[in-house]
Design goal:
By secondary structure, the protein is mainly α. The protein has a single domain, classed as Serine Threonine Protein Phosphatase 5, Tetratricopeptide repeat. The protein is 61% helix and 6% strand. The protein contains 9 helices and 2 strands, in the order H-H-H-H-H-H-H-H-H-E-E. Strand 1 and strand 2 form a beta hairpin. Helix 2 packs parallel to helix 4. The N and C termini lie far apart (77 Å).
């Protein structure tokens, strides 16, 4: 029986002899795949919206933050950041982002709707109903989610016991027709 060091040396030599190149480098170089400088990166806004739809709000927040580096703080980026923060329960971080989004694009119905959802979450029903009315008017009444949100806000204003009888669901909406649902149980 060989001592352990001798056995290890013999095993190393046997394995080296089994390789096709021995101790010499292979003729086919092995490198990690390179980045394609001409390749197209997926836009952070697209990634953020997909992650929001998948319920991955923290990752969506990261994607929208990266998108802000590429696009700047556009209303869509601000609305995405606000929606992600709202979904994470960070209402006080989401509010200034959403208010800035509607200030910069006052005709964007989805941004008004999302601000309304935030206000409902904060319990500011009167302001939320006005914001939903603006969203509904900007949308010309075409979005079912915005109409339903307005209906819920008005019903809650008229009947303070409304929330006790039924779980309320508010829908965040994004540009392009996708929607995110926020469920609120009282």
């Amino acid at each position: 029986m060989l001592p352990p060091r001798s056995a290890a040396l013999c095993l190393t030599l046997v394995l080296a002899a089994c390789s096709s190149g021995g101790l010499e480098p292979s003729e086919i170089p092995v490198y990690a795949p390179a980045l394609d400088p001409g390749g197209e990166a997926v836009d952070g806004l697209v990634v953020g919206h997909r992650l929001m739809a998948a319920g991955q709000y923290e990752l969506a927040l990261d994607a929208f933050t990266r998108a802000s580096g590429r696009h700047g703080l556009t209303p869509e980026v601000l609305s995405g950041l606000g929606a992600a923060n709202l979904s994470l329960g960070r209402l006080h971080q989401a509010e200034p982002q959403m208010r800035r989004a509607v200030a910069e694009d006052p005709d964007w119905a989805e941004a008004w709707n999302n601000l309304g959802v935030l206000l409902m979450e904060k319990g500011e029903v009167a302001e939320a109903s006005e914001v939903f009315r603006r969203a509904y008017a900007a949308d010309n009444g075409e979005s079912d989610a915005i109409r339903d949100n307005l209906r819920l806000a008005l019903a809650k204003m008229e009947n303070s016991g409304y929330a006790d009888a039924q779980e309320e669901e508010y829908a965040l909406v994004r540009l392009g027709g996708g929607s995110y649902l926020i469920k609120r149980a009282f």
